[in-house]
Amino acid sequence: MGTKNLITASAILQHFSVAPKTYTLQAINNGFINDTFLVLDEALPRYILQRINKIVFGDIEGLMANLNQALKALADPEYAQITLIKTPFGATYFENRDGYWRLMTYLGDSTTYNTTTNPLIAYEAGRIIGKFHLLLKDADIQDYTDTIPHFHDLGFRMEQFKTANTKASLAKKTQAEKPIKFVPEIFRKLSILNRTDLPLRICHNDTKLNNILFSKKEHTALCLIDLDTLMKGYFYYDFGDALRTIANSAPEDEKNLDKITFDRSLFESFLDGLASIGPLLNQQELSTLSYGVVFMPFLHGLRALTDYLNDNIYYKVTYENQNLDRCLSLFNFTQKALDELDYMGKTIKEKIPSIP
Ligand code: GN1
Ligand code: MG
Questions:
Q1: pLDDT digits over 4-58, tens only?
Q2: Residue 356 within a domain
Q3: Three state DSSP letters for 52-66
């Protein structure tokens, strides 16, 4: 930890209602969009400090209002609470020339996992996502802002891809020839999800495994974190996004495609966890879930491919071809999920109860 971090920590934290101390920051380099830091008091983790990406999240007021009201709806003895630390003026964030900053309480003895092979973790992930939706099921979607309009709108993502593909260099298009050809084929298959009978719910919209906080000792899921993309959506978004990181034990940018798996037993453990909270979804929603497991990795792979063709203008990449690697790995899992459609549909029917 350099002096620069020390100066930054006190410079930012003085704008929040916390005891004036010498805090230090430890960067958590997990996200592709925001910057996240653990705030330490001596050696003790006390807060999570985040700088919100101003370009990606244009409507900070809407975003923080979403967060504030969702945290109220999520207040439940069986769901761990994260609290926003306000500024002395009662605001939920602080703005300076570097961006928007927010400070949250840190839950002790907690951890996250990027991937898992443990059925208990998969079960707990399903349970906590179910619980999250149960607590938000009566939320009025009108009260929530679309923090990123068209975030999971596949038609919109296809247009962005086509524009990027038109403008990209021949060298890039040649290198990405295979995934580029894969796109229209899968897009056609997913037209089955273009329907108007599904209820809109307040979704998390980024339910990858490492956005779930677990207790270090018991491995029980505590709550979901990273609520910036919380807005209206369909349940199959959250279902598919979780399973792309749970049924597959390889990381999102895995280069060795042989390591990418669709693990049926982890899939089933996730379903058991989701079923444990009781009936939540209607028949129409249940019939879309298996397609959600194809849809979400495909949509993320498409966004990664688009960003690769655009020369990495959106995601914070750590090496030049990371977006292409993410795309190849996500498309590989998309194909594996597609091969498991019948199995998934049958197993969901068996395990997940529907509401009357
Ligand atoms: C981005 O930065 P992070 O990891 O929270 C992205 C998600 C993707 C994720 C990984 C606002 O989230 O949609 O799932 O990378 N968030 C945004 O692929 O674009
Ligand atoms: Mg996120």
A1: 444 478 889 999 999 998 899 999 877 889 999 999 999 999 999 999 999 899 9
A2: no
A3: ECCCCCCCHHHHHHH
Region 302-325 average pLDDT: 97
- Ligand positioned closest to the Cα atom of 301: 1
* 24 within 8 A of 1, measured Cβ to Cβ: yes
Q: Are residues 41 and 151 in the same domain?
A: no
Asked whether 214 and 222 are in contact (CB, 8 A), the reply is yes
pLDDT of residue 6: 46
Tell me, yes or no, whether 214 and 78 share the same domain.
no
What's the 170 CA to ligand 2 centre distance in angstroms? 32
* Residue where one domain finishes, among candidates 106, 132, 165: 106
- Name which residue sits closest to atom 10 of ligand 1, judged by CA: 32
Q: State if residue 32 touches ligand 1 by the CB under 6 angstroms criterion.
A: yes
Do 181 and 102 belong together in one domain? Answer: no
With a threshold of 0.85, does the pTM exceed it?
A: yes
Please count the structural domains in the chain.
2
Ligand 1 nearest-atom number relative to CA 206: 14
Q: Which domain holds residue 32?
A: 3-106
Measured by CA distance, the residue closest to atom 16 of ligand 1 is 33
124 within ligand 1 shell (Cβ under 6 A): no
My answer on whether 32 and 123 are in the same domain is: no
Instruction: Examine residue 112 and state whether it is found in any structural domain, yes or no.
Output: no
Give residue 243 CA to ligand 2 midpoint distance, Å: 16
Residue nearest to atom 5 of ligand 1 (CA): 31
Q: Whose CA is nearest to atom 7 of ligand 1?
A: 206
Q: What is the CATH number of the domain that holds 213?
A: 3.90.1200.10
Structural domain contains residue 113? no
| Exposure letters 84-111 (e unless 16+ CB within 10 A, then b) | bbeeeeeebbbeeeebbbbbbebbeebe
Q: For residue 100, give both structure tokens.
A: 């928007």
Inter-residue contact 257 to 329 (CB < 8 Å): yes
